[in-house]
Structures are given as C-alpha cells and as structure tokens.
Amino acid sequence: MSTLPSREDEQALVERAKRDPNAFGELYDLYFLQIYRFVYSRMRDQAAAEDVTSEVFMKALKSIGRYQDTGKPFSAWLYQIAVNSVADRYRLARPLENIDEQRDLAVGGPALEEVAAQRDELRRIWSMVETLPKQQRIAMVLKFQEDMKIEDIAAVMGKSPGAVKLLIHRGVSRVRQLVGAEGRS
What we know:
This protein is mostly helical.
C-alpha cells in the first residue's frame, strides 16, 4: 500500500497532473484502493465497484484542470465524485433481488412476510432520502449507509462538522415528516 504524500507534495503532484497524464497516474496509484473500497462498500458487487471506480478516475482525469485546492485533501474531491457516481449508478439500475437467495431466511428466522415488510419499509425510507436536496442526501448516505464519522463526512463534503450535523438533522427531520404524512394519507 502506498504511503500518502504530505499536503505540499500532494498539491504539487495535483498541479503536475493538470499538465502531465503520468502525474495523474501517480494520483491514481495513490488513491485507487481507498476509492475502490468505498465504492465496493456501497455496491457490494466487485464488477460494478470496479466499473464505478474507473468512472470516478475518468471523471477526475477529465476535470482535473478545474480542480481547486480548498485546503482539503485531494481524496475528498475523489470521494465527492465517487458519492455522485454511486448514486448515479443506483438511479440507473435498481437491483432486483433473487427470490431463491431469500428462501433460507424463513428457516429459523423471522417470517418471510416480516422480512419483506422490513425491506419494503427500508426501500420506502431510502426512496424518501433520494428526494432530499443533494447535500442532505449525500450526508445521510455517508452517515447511515457508510457509517462514516461526522469529521470524515465533513472532509468529503468540504463542510464543517457542524454543517454536516445540520444537514443530517434536517434530512432526518424531513424523512420523518414524509413518513408521518404517508401514514396519515
């Protein structure tokens, strides 16, 4: 595993990468595994995670000229691209579950109807999260799907920890409102 460079070395490498594709290759080598692990944790499918990770680095390569150092690590920018790429992939292809794989759940566990009801409830809640404003949605996904710490989410999103907490609070409040409104209708 590559050791991450100092902030100064990283920024010098990023500036070189704006002019030299070989320098971008060094960035790819430094951050590929980190970004792949994050994408895989969201997708749980090796082929899809590899595809999305490739898309992340292709988008980064195309956009590197517009990258601005905001004082955050370069990886925060890559994570932002990864968050959006994973969301795009899920929007394009909602996975269908194989019912044969679910058959064993009934043996010694909750009734299949109960499991289905719980999954349906989760799908409803996450579909409501998808309707939230983009920043709230990203914060919610990183917190509740990725189980990331507030400080890490703040770095990825380029926000203060307080701003991230507020985004999550507003997102949770909005989802609660939507669930309550759905229950009353």
